[in-house]
Amino acid sequence: MIGSLLIVDYIQYMMPEIMLFALASLILLLGPFVKKNTPWALISTLGFLLAYFLLLSQKRGSIDPSLLFSINILEDMSSNFIRHFSLGMGLYFCLLFWRDCQTENTFETFALLMFLVTGCSIVGIANDLVVLFLGLELISIPTYVLLYLHGKKDLAAESAMKYFFLSIFSSGLVLLGFSYLYGIVGTTNISAISDALCNGYRFKPSADLDNSSGLLFLIPMLAILAGLGFKISMVPFHFYAPDVYQGTTYRMCALLATVSKVAGFAAIVRIFGFALAQGALPGSSKTLDNIYVLFWILSAVTMTIGTILGLLQRNLRRILAYSSISHSGYILAGIAVAPKLELATGIDGIGASFFYLIAYFFGTFGIFAVLDVLDTKEKPIEDWDDLAGIGSQTPLLAICLAVFLFSLIGIPFTGGFLAKFFIVFGCVSVPYTWDDALSKGTHNLFFLLGIIAFLNAAVGSWIYLRILSGIYFKPAIWPRVFKTSFRPSYLPIIGCVFIVLALGIKPSLVFNLNVLKGMAQPLNSVSLSGIDIPKPAEIDVALKRQ
Fold first, then answer.
1. Is 199 a residue whose pLDDT tops 70?
2. N- or C-end of the chain: fewer Cβ atoms within 10 A?
3. Domain ranges of the chain
């Protein structure tokens, strides 16, 4: 009886994802047999709206938290945020891809979009390594097909194959890390793994005298981080991005630059939350306690290389690809500093990273959406010089593009400014005591990271200012004629402008900032050890072996 009730709870909680998956499957089955003028874009948009309505109608606490160590999905702040954000992204992409509603592959495009958004939502609620991997693959596999369907004729196959081979390599690394982690801990439940890593269920704390236990766990953690690093375009797993972006359309670039990053960072926070949560207690391994140093290095290298290489580009797709790489470095900075911040500082590193992810999404999506509208077969936009004269020919779109570029620069009164401020302020706010050399060294380390982030933001601003100079200060190379009729893709552009400005002026107009505080708290060892429930059978067996 209890098992059947638990299955019913699963179904009720995952009803938005189940509905989207079922609708996408139905579209793929019926698409080849119905008329070509079937409004698949409208059907998909209504599907996303229905899924969002189902999500809003759910009662909080539908998943019993006392079953944390035995359930495969999780209900907490971060999972709710990712679910809402994923469905919102799906609606935006439906409107952006609306222009493809007259092509032969229309039904496939929108079905794959729904699969992709479903996978992103599953990653956000996953509490099991198997479920998490299924969510990641539900994102990757549709992306392969979409890259081929929407790529340039001469570069589509090359772009799709590069992404395919590198993606399956990253999936192999993730699987290697997951299997190794399962062999060590004895369970695939992420909450149980986090608790085991913090409290040392499978090894004695004294074993860390030779640091062997920490190195044992470091192997799967490095493999997992390397695999997820591909999803977020993290250095040194970034080299595919410029070539893949250059070989596809602007709307596919928007998808590559946003959805994979949201899912990748959600997975990183979910898996590494035991060591990254604000105020996380030291675990049983010095190596794992110092994992923030690895994120510090990756953050500094990623934002610096992305900025420097972006300055050397002329092709807009490659410029924005390196921009995407550099912004991953800023988000990693918030993740790195999270365990060293105290509640008294008022800044939560994980919350700051999620806020940056929000501002980054709407700024980047808006840029690609505007470029997708401006790009035509007669007058394609490849280099930043091709935007010359847009300010006078299409003033409204040029203003929208300027707002998005200002946000990525970090100009005040835009969401990008507050996002960068939260990251830099968190880095320079790491507490320390004068008589503690270790805490003072940690403070200096993150103070340096804040300086690196600030300098990269200053230098990287030239990338976007160069584009703006072409829009407003260069004469048009050739006259452009744009259709004045309404396009559905204008709606997400307007929405992005409003949200970018609202995030910079009054973020509470968009959402409650308190939601972003302590988003990794359920993964903290404090919250896990405070649950007085029996451990899973696997951990009980492990305890008897000690």
1. no
2. N
3. 292-521+532-546
